[in-house]
Amino acid sequence: MNILVIGSGGREHSLSWKIAQSDLLDTLYVAPGNGGMTDIAICVDLSASDHDAVVSFCREKDIGFVVIGPEAPLVDGLSDRLQSEDIKTFGPSADAAILEGSKGFTKDLCAKYNIPTAAYARFSEAAGAKTFVADKGAPIVIKADGLAAGKGVIIAETIDEANAAIDDIFGGQFGEAGAELVVEEFLEGEEASFFVLTDGESILPFGTAQDHKRVGEGDVGLNTGGMGAYSPAPVMDETITQRTIEEIILPTVKGMAAEGRPFKGVLFAGLMITDKGPELIEYNVRFGDPECQCLMVRLTSDIVPILMACADGTLNQIDAEWSDNVSLNVVMAAKGYPGSYEKNTEIKNLDQAGSSDNMVIFHAGTKKENEKIFATGGRVLNVTAMAPSVTAAKNDAYAALDQIDWPQGFCRRDIGWRAVERENS
Ligand code: AMP
Ligand code: GLY
C-alpha cells in the first residue's frame, strides 16, 4: 500500500519513520516533509489546504491511506473530504476536531458530561469578561477560543494582566481565533499528556508523556511548542491512568458520539494532576510534538494497522506493544525562538551524533540541499534516546546533542528534571 503523511514537523518525521518500518508499506510520501525525511519517504510539494490537489495526488499515486499530522488541516475538514472520496484517512472530521478548534466547545462538553476541568465562563465581549475576572481574582487563565498556534493561553498573575489579555484578544491579536474567549480557574498540580486512540466507540490507551513548554531552564520564560519530552510520565500511575480513562476519556468519547460528532483519531488530553485527581486542561486532536517522537521510538508494534483500525472502526481487535525502556528527547531550536531567529544556517555532524542504536534524531524545521542540512524553522531537531531510566536517556540524548555542530542552535539542558529527581530521590 502507498501511504501519504501530511505535515513537516518532528511529529511527522517520527510517524513517517515508524510507518516506514511497516510490512504493509510500498511507497511512503510526505507532504511537504522536511530535510530529515528524504531517506525514508518521497517529499512532495503539496499544500494541505488545497483539498482538490491532495485528492488528485492520492488518485495519481494510488494512495491507500492518509495520515494527517497537524491540527489545522483537521479543523479545516481535510479528513472529511478525503473520506468522502473513499480515501482512508487517519484523523478526525472537522465536526470532531472542534475539540481543539474551540476551547469554549470543549468546556461546554465537559460541563454537560460531568468531566473534571477548571471552572470557566465564555465571553464574546470585554466588559463581561472583566467583571468575571474582578469577581474571581488572580491568578486566572485567559484563553482565545480558536486555534492560535499554541500562543492563545495567558496565565494572568494579576487582574491587570488578565484585563490586558482580554483587551489584546478582543483587539485582534489572534484574529478570528479571538472572536470569543474563555476565562478559567488556575489549576495547581503536575501536568501530563495522555494519548488515546479511538474509532468513535472503542479506545486504546496509547501512552503518556511530559513536555517542557517554557523556553527556559527551570520552566521559565515564554511558552513554546515544546522544548523536550519524555515517556512514560511517572505521574500517570495505574490509579491516575484508570481515573483519567473513566472520568475524562470515556465520557468524552461517548459524549462526542451522542452529540453526533464521533471522534476517530488520536485524542491528546492535556491533564493537570491536582490534589483532587486528574483534570482536563485541554484536548488536542492530533499527536503532541515532541511527545509523539517519544511514543514512536517506544512502540514495538506495526503502527499502520493500529492507525487504520481507528478509521475502520475495528480498534477493539487491536493491541499495541511497547518497549519497557523510557524515551526522552531534547529539542534543538534556532537561537531567538520562540521570537525571531536566523534561517538557512548549516547543521553539521548529524550522522555521527545519531549513530548509536538507541538514538534517533528527528528533524523539524530543516531542508536538505546538496547533501547538506540547513535550519529553516524555530524548532529544528529532536534528539531522541531510549534507555532503561530517564536519567540514562537524558545523559545519552545530551551526549549525542553535544556532537551536533550548529552554532546558531540552542536547547534546554534540564529536560526530564522532574523524573530525574524522582529517580534519584
Ligand atoms: P494550552 O495551550 O491550553 O495547553 O495551555 C498552555 C499551558 O497553559 C498548559 O500547558 C498549562 O501549562 C497552562 N494552563 C492552561 N490552562 C491552565 C489552567 N486552567 N490552570 C493552570 N495552567 C493552565
Ligand atoms: N507539545 C505540545 C503540543 O503538541 O501541543
Structure description:
By secondary structure, this protein is an alpha+beta fold. The chain has four domains: 92 residues, Rossmann fold, CATH 3.40.50.20; 55 residues, ATP-grasp fold, A domain (Dna Ligase, domain 1, 2-Layer Sandwich); 128 residues, ATP-grasp fold, B domain (D-amino Acid Aminotransferase, Chain A, domain 1, 2-Layer Sandwich); 98 residues, Alpha-Beta Complex (Glycinamide Ribonucleotide Synthetase, Chain A, domain 4). The chain contains 14 helices and 23 strands. The strands form five sheets. Strands 10, 11, 14, 15, 16, 17, 19, 22 and 23 form a nine-stranded antiparallel sheet that branches. Strands 3-2-1-4-5 form a five-stranded parallel sheet, sandwiched between helices. Helix 1 runs parallel beside helix 10 and helix 7 packs antiparallel against helix 8. The longest helix is centred in the middle third of the chain and has 21 residues. It is globular, with a radius of gyration of 21 Å. The protein starts with a strand and ends with a helix. The mean pLDDT is 96.
Strand content: 25-35%
CATH class of the largest domain: Alpha Beta
What does the overall shape look like?
globular
The CATH architecture assignment of the largest domain turns out to be: 2-Layer Sandwich
User: What gap, in angstroms, lies between the N and C termini?
Assistant: 49 Å
Please give the radius of gyration in angstroms.
21 Å
What's the number of extended β-strand segments?
23
Number of domains: 4
**Average pLDDT, all residues:** 96
Helix content: 25-40%
Low-confidence stretches: none
Q: Given the structure, what is the number of helices?
A: 14
CATH superfamily of the largest domain: ATP-grasp fold, B domain
The distinct ligands, each listed once, are: adenosine monophosphate, glycine
Structural class: alpha+beta
Largest sheet: 9 strands, antiparallel
Write the CATH fold name of the largest domain. Answer: D-amino Acid Aminotransferase, Chain A, domain 1
